[in-house]
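Chapter review: from sequence to fold.
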Amino acid sequence: MASEDDNEYKKFDKVVAMYEDGNLLGQKHTSSRKKLTDMPLYQFRTLSTLSTANKAMVLDMLLKKQLDVSSISKEIKRAQVIQMAQRQICAETGVKDWAELEQMFPRHMTREVLSHQFGQVSDVSMMEEN
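The token string follows.
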């Protein structure tokens, strides 16, 4: 994260501070007098695979307490699936970037639509692997 945009690093730093204070959604408190310092960094490793926009989205969800600590990995995987879908759609249509497609088809290129369409494919492929 140190090589990231300064704004994103500040968000990440705030998330770490919230974790240390026991203030993330769904975080279990071990003691009211003892600060939590055991940051589960393994959950944040895959953040580096996300685009800046997707990384910001996940961090914002944590900061706004819209994402439970136990769901971090699942949300990052969902963002990865959406990101792969965006790349695939851009490659297939010959469009240079995702922003152009969003302008052309604003109702059809939302995160919710992609999550629904490509999430089903991802869920099926995950079940086949198990």
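Two observations follow directly from the output. The chain has one domain: 6-129. The two ends are 32 Å apart (CA to CA).
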